[in-house]
Amino acid sequence: MDKKTFFIGWNYLMLAVAVLNIVLVALEVIKGSTSEIGALLFFTGLLAVLPAVLTIIMARAGIRGEYSTCRKIAFFVLAINIINVVFDGKKALISAIAAAVYFYLVLSLDKYKY
To answer: What span, in angstroms and rounded, lies between the C-alpha atoms of 48 and 35?
Structure first.
């Protein structure tokens, strides 16, 4: 399997995980909106959804083959995931590793595209 095929598969995987993450965060916000800290939970949920939304945009560009756009967005997603490792622990570490693999793939594919 070549890198380009693996990269496209990785895009679909990242896309599926991002959509699942948005759904899970939305369910948590809806569940917690009736509590006393509902507004705080809403804004925290927005911050949690930001990397997922960027991942969807990044994966869509990756499927299209727009490597420079992917590289720019992947840098921000990786940075956000590294920051989340400090606050979230193991769950964010898995996301950071997935984003690092994605960043490596897009760098290697963007380097050879002419």
So the answer is: 19
Render pLDDT for 24-41 as a digit per residue (tens, 0 to 9): 888 877 776 666 666 677
Closest to 4 (Cα-Cα) out of 107, 114, 111, 105: 105
How far is residue 29's CA from residue 44's CA, in Å, rounded to a whole number?
A: 9
Mean pLDDT of 75-103: 83
Specify whether the CB–CB gap between 111 and 3 falls below 8 A: no
Identify whether the C-beta of residue 63 lies closer than 8 Å to the C-beta of residue 11. Answer: yes
Residues 6+ apart with CB under 8 A from 88: none
Q: Which residues are CB-neighbours of 108 under 8 A, at least 6 positions away? A: 3
Enumerate residues 6+ apart whose C-beta is below 8 A from 3.
105, 108, 109
Cα–Cα nearest to 71, from 114, 104, 112: 104
Amino acid 51 reads P
pTM for the complete prediction?
0.81
Q: What is the pLDDT of residues 1-11, one digit of tens each?
A: 788 888 899 89
